[in-house]
Every structure is written in C-alpha cells, then in structure tokens.
Amino acid sequence: MHTTGQSFLMGFQAGGPHAQDRALEAIAYAYDEMSRVPERVIWEKPAKPEPLRIEKTYRVVPRGIDLTIGCSTFPTWNGYPGMFASLVTGNAVIVKPHPQAILPLAITIEIVQDVLREGGYDPRVVMLAVDAPDRPLAKVLAQRPEITLVDYTGSTIFGDWLEQNANALVYTEKAGVNSVVIDSTGDLDGMARNLAMSLSLYSGQMCTTPQNLFVPKDGILAGGARVSFDDVVGALLRAVDGLLGDPARAAGVLGAIATDATLQRIDEENAKPGVVRKSTVVTNPEFPGARVRSPLVAVVDAADRDRFEREAFGPIAFVVRTADTAESLRLATAEARSKGAITAIVHTTDDAVLEQAHRWAEDGKVNLAVNLTGSLLVNQSAAFSDFHVSGGNPAGNSSLTDAAFVANRFRVIETRTPLA
User: Fold this and answer.
1) Beta carbons within 8 Å of 203's beta carbon, 6+ residues apart
2) Total tally of structural domains belonging to the chain
3) Tens digits of residue pLDDT in 83-103
4) If DSSP codes are grouped into helix, strand and coil, which group holds residue 264?
C-alpha cells in the first residue's frame, strides 16, 4: 500500500498471493522444461563384431546472473516470475528495485536469504542492489559482462534501451495502448459498469487498463435498439460516477497516484478540449494526504491520432468517434502493431464482427476479451490460466508465463563415455 499507492485489498492480493502464484507458475514451467531431458541414457548402435555402446549424461547448467529490475506499481507481481524462474534454473539473482518501491522486494530478499541460509546455501545467491533517482544503477548493471539475463517491467523507453544495449538475454514487459472496440451489446449498463471499474481500478495505473474506447459515430445496437454515440458516452460516465459516488468505496477502488509525471499528465489532459469528465481529487478518509484522482474521460475524433495513439498512463481514457466498426478495428489493430497492447476488448452481438475481432487480436498479437459485462475485468490476469503479455508486439518481448520465458535460462551440457 505505502510504496505503490494501491488500496489495501489490491495491495494484499496483487502483492502477496497473486505474486506468489506467478512465482510458483514460473517454477513449474521451468521444472517441466528442465525435466524434458533425462539425466542418463545408454545409446547403442549395431555394429560388428560388437555394438557401439555409449553412456550419455546430461546436466542442466545456469546461464549466469540474472538482473531483475523492479517497477514502482507492482514490484512483486512483476518481479517474482523472472526472479524465481532464474533461481530454479540455477542462476544467481541481483534485484534492483525501483527507488520508489524498495520495501516489498527488500522484504522478499531478506526472507529468501534466510531460507537459503537455513538450507546450507550461500545467501548471497540473491542480492539487493538499491539505487536512487539521481544515482541510477540499472544501466550500469545491465552492461556488466557478468549479467547474462535481465528481467524488466516498466517504461517503453528504458525497455527499448535494454533490448538494444544490454549484454544479456532480456525479457521485457513494457507499455502499450490498450483498446476497446464497441460495436453492439446485449447489456449496455453491464458493459458500462465493467468498463468503469476497469478504468478506475488503481486509478488506471495498470498495464492492462483500457485507454481507447472506439465507438461508431452513429452509435451502437444495445439490446436490439439503436443507442446514439452520446448515449453510449453518457452510460459510461454514469457508471463511473455511480461507482465512485460513495467515498469509502471510491477509496477501495482508486489508488494514490504514484508519480509526479502522472499527476502532470492528468492536469495537462484536464485542460484539453473534448474532456467530458475531468479527473478530480478524491479524498481517502483513512489517508487524507494521499493524492488520489478519479478517471478522466475525453471524446476525440478518429483523426486526432496524435492525442490518443500514445500511452497516457494513469486515469485517462479516450472515447474515439469512428466512422464505423470497421474503422474501429483498423485503428485498434494498427495501435497494437505500432505501439503495442497488452489487453483488448470487443463488445459485439454480431458473429461476423467477432470473427474480425479475432483477426485483430491475431494480427496485433494481443490477448482478447469478449463482451465483459460482469465481475471479470480485463485488468485481471490469473496464474496457470492466463498468459500476461503475448510477447508478440511492442508492449513486451516475453510472456508471463510460457515455456519461452524459462527455457533459455539454462543450458544442457552433455558428456559421452564409451562403454566396454
């Protein structure tokens, strides 16, 4: 709570059991990959006067040292997968936490070192490398020849730099522009409530939060009736206001704004044209000094690409007025390809549109959610069930968690010995 600004419930779930789920998932995937090769086999080739018999042994060996670079918003949820995938494959780990979120990973390292010590291992297999904004360490460490693996979650700019300059195998989860294509729905109010929660949760400071909501200018079909563009926007605004109308509930949904840059971005967008719901200050009764903001919603035209075709991290959403659903899908696909996307949503009752949305997801290499109107949010990603980030677009080059995330963290070394 106190390092990320999350509410208690989200801080507990995402920072505790859900993060541990992700760690266990990485361990399970790595164990499965390491177990594919047997430890010992006898190889035999028929020959005269005696067959050729060779004992072949295989040993899994680590690549070296992993540098895990932590993020400020979800330090353990994003930090544990790479950290534990490297540990279980035999690699030492240096954890470089974000200077604003040191404590969660520091507690983690303390416990891991205690466990290593109890097991008779050198506790320095895992170490903490703390820096400060004016004395950054990430670039220095990433270019050290001893570092063979890098796990990173954070901004696209630094993620791109790591991919291009680190002397190591780099696994990144960066940022993207997540889209919602609204074509039609059987439950307008349910759709609006679901989107309102997704936009509000942790004040939009999640890599899975929708940003651009594409709606045809002539409106949509809702429950078989034609609903205008303005009425779709109105339903969304009513849902946001209804969700956050109770201060106690709002405090449990929203989170404190983590950085000054996000606050500045909110203020700048508040002053621009087209804003139909300004981001406002929300008081948290338990923490009166917390800087909490509600979602900003702006209506823009499809031609205003300079405004919405970039990541606007934080509680900022754009309802984009398009010519039709076909244009909505084209814009969403282009964004995923060029800017990256981690999540995508389509709302439609038309099977043909749904098929086109599947092509959007495949072409943009983005995970798709269909007709979310209940309690399941696109923001949520479950271990052992959901792949978080596809690794196929600029939002990141890896996925949490698949075989590719773990299999290259170790090598298999073979020994061949002839048998008499």
Assistant:
1) 5, 254, 255, 256, 257, 292, 293, 294, 295, 314, 315
2) 2
3) 999 999 999 999 999 999 999
4) helix
∠ CA 242-247-248, rounded to 5°: 110
Would residue 379 count as lying in a domain? no
Q: Does residue 117 share a domain with residue 20? A: yes
Q: Do residues 126 and 183 share a domain?
A: no
- Mind listing the pLDDT tens digit for each residue in 153-211? 999 999 999 999 999 999 999 999 999 999 999 999 999 999 999 999 999 999 999 99
- Residues in contact with 359: Cβ distance below 8 Å, sequence separation at least 6, in sequence order: 333
Tell me, yes or no, whether 325 lies in a domain.
yes
Domain of 97, in residue numbers = 8-174+396-418
Q: Are 346 and 224 in a shared domain?
A: yes
Note whether 183 and 239 are same-domain residues.
Answer: yes
Asked if the structure places residue 148 within a domain, the reply is yes
pLDDT at residue number 420: 79
Alpha-carbon span 183 to 351, nearest angstrom:
11
Any idea what the CATH number is for the domain that residue 294 is in? Answer: 3.40.309.10
Q: Return phi, psi of residue 345, to 5°.
A: -130, 140
Does the global pTM surpass 0.90? yes
Amino acid identity, position 108: T
Q: How far is CA 238 from the centre of its chain?
A: 28
225 and 355 belong to one structural domain: yes
Alpha helices in 349-412 (DSSP H): 351-364, 403-407
Phi, psi of 160 (to 5 degrees): -60, -40
Structure tokens at 347: 């709302």
* 64 and 98 fall within a common domain: yes
Q: How far is CA 207 from CA 51, 75, 110, 316, 379, in A?
A: 60, 13, 28, 13, 8
Indicate if 310 and 414 belong to the same structural domain: no
DSSP 151-183: EEES-HHHHHHHHHH-SSEEEEE-----EEEE-
Q: Find the helix or strand (DSSP H, E) in which 409 lies.
A: none
- Assess whether 95 and 243 both reside in one domain: no
pLDDT, tens digit, 9 for 90 and up, residues 228-277: 999 999 999 999 999 999 888 898 899 999 999 999 999 999 999 999 99
- The per-residue pLDDT for 285 is 87
**Would you say residue 3 lies in a domain?**
no
